[in-house]
Structures are given as C-alpha cells and as structure tokens.
# Entry
Amino acid sequence: MADGQRADARRNYSRILAVAEREVAVHGAGASLEQIARTAGVGSATVRRHFPTRRALLEAVSRERVEALRVRAEELTGRGDSRAALLEWLGDVVVYSVAARGLAAALAYEGTPVHENSCSATLEAAAAPLLRRAVQDGAFAADVTVGDLITLIVGIVLATEHHPDPAVRADRLFRMAVAGLSPPG
# Structure
C-alpha cells in the first residue's frame, strides 16, 4: 500500500486485508474476491485497485507469516547441525503452509519470476545461508536450490490440502521427500 494514500484508501486497504485473511483461512487461495469486497463493504473495483491480482492479495495476506519464517531462518543460521537446521526451517514452512491456507499458492511460481513473487523471494533470501551451509557440510547436493525446496513444499501442501488430515499427510510426504534428498549421514 502506498504511504501517500488518502485516509479512506488506507482504511479500505486495512478492512479488505482483514476480511481477506479470514476468507482465505476458510476458503484457501480460491476465496472469492467478490465476497471479500461485499464483506469489507467496498466495491470489487476497490479490491482490485488495492490488489490488482489474486497473487498480490495472497502475498499481502501471507506477509506476516513469511516474515516470521524469515526471522526463524535467521535464528537457525549457524546453529549446530546444518542439515538439522535447514530441515527444521523447511518443516516450519510446511507447517505454516498447511495452517495458513493460501500461503502455498502465494509461494507458487506459476511462471512468475521469483523476483516478482515477494513471498518466495523473501524466503529464498532467508534460507540461502541455511542451504549454503548444508551444501558445504555435504548434507545436500550442490545443485539443490531453495527454489527447488519451496516448490517441493508447495506441491506437497497443495496436494494434501483436501486430505482429511492435511497436516499429518503433508508432514509424512515431506519426510519421505527429505529422506530421498538428504538421507541422514
């Protein structure tokens, strides 16, 4: 949101974002933009003016969680076993993505370059030191990228979101993938 906006535009933005957070939590990434507009008491054009794309809305809704994951990566960088630190952070990304319906969709690239996806760009920058250290320690292959790992998580979370227990299923699939990517030393 631009800082130079009028007070009513800032209020609309805040109201739309609060409603969108609730709607995405219930309906996931496919939450109705029209329903968000109605519930926020604004027109759909106002929603689109603030959030020109669904991705922009999902990124705004996910901003706090992405920031928490960025901080978590900083906390884990340089701690103990590099493999364990990276896997702990990736596990946090899985847990957040399952719990925060819409986060996986915000992280998905869908043909969008990473620099145009603020959620993914933030997480890639945050996790780069974790992965770099794990690669240096021989815990991960040198050609694995943070983008690869986020894409894997997005796929797992999206594939399990309609499972009766998505958290358990996503965790199981993530652990199976990790065993293939980085078997314990």
Q: What stands out?
A: Residues 77 and 130 are 6 Å apart (CA to CA). The chain has a mean pLDDT of 88. DSSP finds nine helices and no strands in the chain. The radius of gyration is 18 Å.
